[in-house]
Amino acid sequence: MTYDDDNLILTRSNVSVDQINAVFYNKFPYPWQAHKFDYLQDPYFETRLLNQDVGSWNFRVVPKCPRIWVAGCGTNQALITALKFPKAAILGTDLSTSSLEHCTETARALGICNLVLKQESINQSAYKERFDYIISTGVIHHNAFPEDTLRKLAAAMKPYGILELMVYNRFHWLIPSAFQKAVRILHGDSPLTDFEKDLSIAKEIINELKYETSVGVVGEFGHYSDSMLADELIQPVLHSYTIESLADLVRDCGLELILPCLNQFDKYEKKYSWNMSFKNPILRETYDSLPDFSRWHVTNLLLREKSPQLWFYLQRKDSGRPRISEKEICEQFLDTRFVRTGTIQKSYLRKEDGKYILLPSALRFPTVTPDEDIRSIVDEVDGRRTMREVFQAHAVDTSFYSVNHVRLRLATTAFPYVRSAEFDNS
């Protein structure tokens, strides 16, 4: 289905759009070269927390030594993934030779040896039940027919595999999509691509538009690099979704949403949860009683551009692993014993000449202390008492909203302060 909010002027077929995207990202490799890469001394740290992200309090979902596919890896994502999961076998694929050349050069400089890079379209891939964990963020919505691309990812997952997927939230992309379509019209709606001309038009519009206009907010992008500006304002094909249309897409591809993935963008903007807190008791009770998807849909509709990213963990509907609701996961969280996390973080820093050096100093990880309002809970975690007992000792509210808020800010990859004591027996 085509929505007026999407930018599909250049959409013809998966093959033609693959060709366009290859040209686009060869010209504008994305994202930019990273200033720093970090890695942790504990090789299983991230795997434990990833399992907790999806409601598993042991290694029963993502194994200790997983096979991972970063599908549409750009310049940095496969590198970051390889450093996070040093015991994993990582495959990074992308259409852009420029992005892969950047990635290859940096991997060599960092001595990364658990990563294989390959120029490949997801649409042309033929993997069957190969990967434990697939990461594809900001990718499928740039394809002609995202449902075909998502089916390729679904086919590549092992039956018990996990897919981390991000697509554009329609309410976040109303203005950029409108801007992109305007640029294409001013370019003449040509089926040919001239991204230099598109970028020139975009820069001229930014200089002309008054900030007070609804699209004038793009003036804030004037200081961006060409690659970042291009990705925001002249990307040639863009689909966007609401929770409702994403759930439909996922279901049609034989998948189901598990849980939201608290990501670096929402963390920075403090959009920690897809759940709202209402003061009116009747409204709160009605909202809290809704199934996950309906509750998230209400949040998406009411918060609109203030709602979180559409960034979710998915599983196959035929996985044989029953989907557990967010409320059930919170109950499991309360009934689990936790220990505090801790390891050492070391970093590679890029010098002025573009080369990376390993810094001699090391930091205790997590490097940032928990927020003050939940620090006392972390201090009481001892591996013996359940989280419910810790809550009771501090008279902490055990309503769903309160527990989920604490779970997200203590026991996830975004806030990795505690881990299940069950991991010690796995």
Walk me through the structure.
By secondary structure, the chain is α/β, with parallel strands linked by helices. It has 2 domains: 14-171 and 239-325, 3-Layer(aba) Sandwich (Rossmann fold), CATH 3.40.50.150; 330-425, no CATH class. It has 16 helices and 13 strands. The longest helix is centred in the first third of the chain and has 14 residues, at 14-27. Strand 3, helix 4 (97-110) and strand 4 form a beta-alpha-beta unit.
Give the gist of this structure.
This protein is α/β, with parallel strands linked by helices and 426 residues long. Helix content is 38%, strand content 17%. The chain has helices at residues 14-27, 45-53, 77-84, 97-110, 146-156, 174-187, 195-208, 226-233, 243-252, 264-268, 281-288, 292-303, 326-334, 372-380, 387-393, 400-410, and strands at 36-40, 67-71, 89-94, 115-119, 131-137, 157-167, 255-260, 310-316, 338-340, 343-350, 356-358, 363-365, 418-420.
